[in-house]
Amino acid sequence: MSERTIKFGLVGIGGIGQHHVNYLRSMEHVALVAVCDTDKGKADATAKDCGAAAYYDAIDMLDRGGLDVVIIAVPHYDHPTIAIEAFKRGIHVLCEKPIAVHVNAAKAMIEAHEAAKARKPDLQFAIMFQERTLPYYAKLKAIMESGMLGKLSRATWIHTKWFRSQAYYDSGGWRATWAGEGGGILTNQCPHTLDMYQWLFGLPATISGHAHIGKYHDIEVEDEVTAYFEHASGMIGHLIVTTAELPGTNRMEIVGDLGKLVLENNKLLYYKYPQSMLKFSQETDQRFAEWEIVPEEIAVDTNVPNGHHVVTERLVQRLLGNRVDLIAEGPEGLGSLTLANGIMLSSFKQRPVPVPIDGDAFQAELAERIRTSSYVKKAVQQPDANQDMSASFGTTK
């Protein structure tokens, strides 16, 4: 094993940033050498606690920090700016989700990475889609790749385990605003859900979205969304998400010609059809029919390592010269963002939109909402710096 140490810098020491600090400390071949936050007190305290240098400006840290890798954990609008500056300096990037607020900015990041690779071919760009490592989702991916279900006809995902209180939205002046965050549940809570959908099923050909703005909270962005996807293969998809339900639901149904999968409450059930569903429909002389199928529970090893540290460890191993796949290459972040922007653009326009979406049209809609916003936060409650963020991470439960 290489004795090389990978020098990390972290931009943004909010809740998720502190989570990065915590697990980086225990990783082999890793040294957190620099931390950066515009809150000088926070940067100084974190730097002292973990033996790193403190910075208050991201560009200054990129220039003077001696970094191999920068983790970007700042508000979403700043992801592209910092990533592009890092690429210019030959610094590897691990970006928190979402890759950007709109697809035009994401494409600029991807183009900057490709341009920088002309000078440094091994320059890495990873994105923090740690939910791909969760055992049940990883199992679903393997099943989708196996073709076990045959031709897919429907995927329906009700994912309302994203409860957020008004106190959560009041915990930052940038939260749940067009100018500060660029959106609501689709931009903040659901990039992982949207990534998982496109990871399993690919991008649809057409998106129809219905987004409700501030329906349950005093915010100016969406907190409830229903979307309908049409795929070129003929498969349809449904997505229902909200931050207002308690207790929430996380249920996915995947229907194919040869079987059906249902994932809910950490149980993956497989309904194996006695024959092709579509062929039966065409050839049977029965006008009505019902298959009595006892589902089989598919075993899933839940003890495999998963989470943020696994994503980071893959990047570290690649930088040490080992031939490993990243959990998610940076450009893959464009898929979930296409879904998020497409849903909102469809809702804004009140019509279906084709994929690839019109990035200029979405950016113009977003800019207009920022320009005309009259929303004023009534209070900003500072969160506890030591708050456990694990409750905010997605699960399959």
Strands, count: 15
Average predicted confidence as pLDDT = 95
- Which value, in Å, is the CA radius of gyration? 22 Å
Strand order, largest beta sheet: 14-13-12-11-7-10-9-8-15
CATH class of the largest domain: Alpha Beta
- List segments where confidence is low: pLDDT < 50 over at least 5 consecutive residues: none
Count of folded domains: 2
CATH homology superfamily name of the largest domain: Dihydrodipicolinate Reductase, domain 2
Helix content: 25-40%
CATH-defined architecture of the largest domain: 2-Layer Sandwich
Give the terminus-to-terminus CA distance: 37 Å
Fold-level CATH name of the largest domain: Dihydrodipicolinate Reductase, domain 2
Give me the secondary-structure category. Answer: alpha/beta
Strand content bin: 15-25%
Protein name: Gfo/Idh/MocA family oxidoreductase
InterPro entries: Gfo/Idh/MocA-like_OxRdtase_N (IPR000683), Gfo/Idh/MocA_Oxidoreductase (IPR052515), GFO_IDH_MocA-like_dom (IPR055170), NAD(P)-bd_dom_sf (IPR036291)
Domain Gfo/Idh/MocA-like oxidoreductase N-terminal: 6-117
GO molecular function, one term: nucleotide binding
Describe it for me?
This is Gfo/Idh/MocA family oxidoreductase. Residues 6-117 form the Gfo/Idh/MocA-like oxidoreductase N-terminal domain. InterPro entries: Gfo/Idh/MocA-like_OxRdtase_N, Gfo/Idh/MocA_Oxidoreductase, GFO_IDH_MocA-like_dom, NAD(P)-bd_dom_sf. Pfam families: GFO_IDH_MocA, GFO_IDH_MocA_C3. α6 packs parallel to α8 and α11 (333-349) packs across α12 (359-372). The two termini are 37 Å apart. The longest helix is centred in the last third of the chain and has 17 residues, at 333-349. This protein has 2 domains: 6-129 and 306-328, Rossmann fold; 131-304 and 335-392, Dihydrodipicolinate Reductase, domain 2. Helices cover 33% and strands 21% of the residues. It is of the alpha/beta class. The strands form 2 sheets. The protein has a 9-stranded mixed sheet with strand order 14-13-12-11-7-10-9-8-15. A 6-stranded parallel sheet has the order 3-2-1-4-5-6, with helices on both faces. A hairpin with a 2-residue loop joins β11 and β12 (259-264). The mean pLDDT is 95.
